[in-house]
Amino acid sequence: MRILGIESSCDETGVAIYDGERGLLSHALHSQVDTHAVYGGVVPELASRDHIRRLAPLTGQALAEAGLERADLDGIAYTRGPGLMGALLAGSAFARSLAWSLDIPALGVHHMEAHLLAPMLEDNPPAFPFVALLVSGGHTMLVLVAGLGRYRLLGQSLDDAAGEAFDKTAKLLELPYPGGPALEKLAAEGDPGRFRFPRPMTDRPGLDFSFSGLKTHTLNTVHEHRGDPTARADIARAFQDAVVDTMAIKCRRALEQTGVGRLVVAGGVGANQALRNRLREVAEKRDATVHYPRLALCTDNGAMVAYLGHCRLAAGQRGDLSFDVTARWGLEELTDPGRPDAA
Ligand code: KG4
Ligand code: ZN
């Protein structure tokens, strides 16, 4: 089956084609960074309008790169949620209409499930079961993945998501949007020995996260060192080290508790090199393997949606004709289309 995948949940329009036999054939992306940068964050209405403008040309580009015509497609998958309602509606209306006109099935898929399975698009994909650390702008979760649609939440953030913490801290440090990559760059210039920030919730058992205390600690440190030009980079470094350390501790615990030897890291914050290097060390020490998508497939993209759509459509899952979307959608509500009753 050849599946067109459409991602439009936030500030990136992604369109890709996945072929069940040949793998990923093409993926096209438009990032709205320039549109939102002047406002210091994503403006939902501008995001929706830009998705509408980009969806058709990006679809043409993905088809051309794959050397295919629309008639060669066997199905369309789109992000149904979670995400910004208007942005999701732009993608779902486009995907559903195109599928209807081609008389092929369309399926709305879960954005975080797509992130979770993105490492399957790489060489040496992880076998089930694996532990996944999902770290994006809206979510921070540790999930035990037994198979497609079989997810057990091991822990999650009780307040800010990891990406949100990066973005808010970046703002404090007067860095431009998007904050995560800018903060990583500044942290690289920082002195790791100058400040030591707390590692939240690592002194008690459990796999939940909390980043709001760390944010306050960072805010106070910024205020205390106003006027010191070198402090910004040192603060960025201390913040990143604290987040990376916290995640490393929780991932090690999750591997220990589950006895699983494979760790997957996905979502936008998974693009952070310090986090990738640190988790590689954690895995090596435990004789476990760690699997990342390439950087372009860590942040939002259409390839992960096309891949997930293929898994579900090839297993026979079908949606109705409505193009409803949802801002909130729990990962644990999902099922395996081959065994819908399996937990
Ligand atoms: O998965 P994603 O592209 O979109 C969502 O589904 O939210 O994740 C975006 C988040 C943003 O908060 C962004 O600042 C963060 O991922 N991010 C990073 C890096 N690249 C993106 N955070 C830290 N270091 C990075 N290199
Ligand atoms: Zn995402």
How would you describe the overall organization of this protein?
It contains 11 helices and 10 strands. 50% of the residues are buried. Strand 4, helix 3 (85-102) and strand 5 (106-110) form a beta-alpha-beta unit. The protein has 2 domains: 2-116 and 297-333, ATPase, nucleotide binding domain (Nucleotidyltransferase, domain 5), CATH 3.30.420; 127-292, ATPase, nucleotide binding domain (Nucleotidyltransferase, domain 5). The mean pLDDT is 96. The protein is α/β, with parallel strands linked by helices and 343 residues long. Helix 8 runs parallel beside helix 9 (273-285). It has a 5-stranded mixed sheet, sandwiched between helices. The chain is globular, with a radius of gyration of 20 Å. It binds 5'-O-[(R)-(carboxyoxy)(hydroxy)phosphoryl]adenosine (KG4) and zinc ion. Residues 10, 136-138, 163, 166-167, 178-181, 184, 267-269, 271-272, 299-300 line the site of 5'-O-[(R)-(carboxyoxy)(hydroxy)phosphoryl]adenosine (KG4).
Number of domains: 2
Any idea of the CATH topology of the largest domain?
Answer: Nucleotidyltransferase, domain 5
Overall body shape: globular
Radius of gyration: 20 Å
Helix content: 40-55%
Query: Separation of termini?
Result: 27 Å
Name given to the CATH homologous superfamily of the largest domain: ATPase, nucleotide binding domain
Enumerate the distinct ligands: 5'-O-[(R)-(carboxyoxy)(hydroxy)phosphoryl]adenosine, zinc ion
Read across the widest sheet, the strand sequence of neighbours is 3-2-1-4-5
Order of helices and strands: EEEHHEHEHEEEHHHHEHEHH
CATH architecture annotation name of the largest domain: 2-Layer Sandwich
Helical stretch tally: 11
CATH level 1 class label of the largest domain: Alpha Beta
Largest sheet: 5 strands, mixed
Secondary-structure content class: alpha/beta
| Residue share in β-strands | 15-25%
Q: Segments where pLDDT lies below 50 for 5+ residues?
A: none
How many β-strand runs? 10
Return the average pLDDT rounded to an integer. 96
